[in-house]
Amino acid sequence: MLARDALTKCVVQLSGTMEGASGGDAGSVLKSTVVQLRGKIKKLDRLIAEALKGDARLAGLADALTGIAGVGVLSAAKIVALVPELGTLGRRRSAAIAGLAPFTRDSGRYKGKTFISGGRAEVRRALFMPATVAIKHNPVLKAAYQNLRKSGKAYKVAITAIMRRLFAHMDAVAAKWLRETAAAASSAALTALP
Fold first, then answer.
1. Which of 32, 64, 86, 159 has its CA 20 to 30 A from that of 15?
2. What does pTM read for this prediction?
3. Nearby residues of 103 by Cβ (< 8 Å), 6 or more positions away
4. Alpha helices in 21-88 (DSSP H)
5. Among 80, 93, 91, which Cα is nearest to 119's?
6. What does the angle CA 78 – CA 124 – CA 176 come to, to the nearest 5 degrees?
7. Domain boundaries defined on the chain
8. Could you report the per-residue pLDDT of 150-162, keeping only the tens digit for each?
9. Pick from 180, 175, 16: which is nearest to 89 by CA?
């Protein structure tokens, strides 16, 4: 996942540089490099999908997470890779681990404002795109987002709240999947006894 993120950053940087390039040889070299990097990203996507299929536990967990509207295969794979304890957290711990828990920091300058801090920044980054998709396609999160915006919350505050709710939901789905898998395994073990 880290290699894919690094290549994606390179593509973004080179695309920005390409816009500033005045064409000619430099522009064509940058363009061919971007095309090559995008090909490598697609290859990494295939490798990630194969790695998921190769591990039954990861594949099942990622499949359960992709059942949530807004969460795709790559997002699920990234969350599973970054948060191995997924499914055992609970709502408050999941918000703290992702660094999405709101903290009040009242002082002379800030009164009544909350801030997020700490946690795993990579998890926060991995949740941003699924949250933006979820506010369009997940009816529950869409309604929550619209209510937050109607109450005057800024976009970043609202999307952070949606990210927190989405991650808590992902943890609950993972916990349910883990319980069902454990029950199926123990049932299979009991039926295998003589």
1. 159
2. 0.80
3. 114, 115, 116, 117
4. 24-54, 56-66, 73-82
5. 93
6. 60
7. 1-54, 56-192
8. 999 999 999 999 9
9. 175
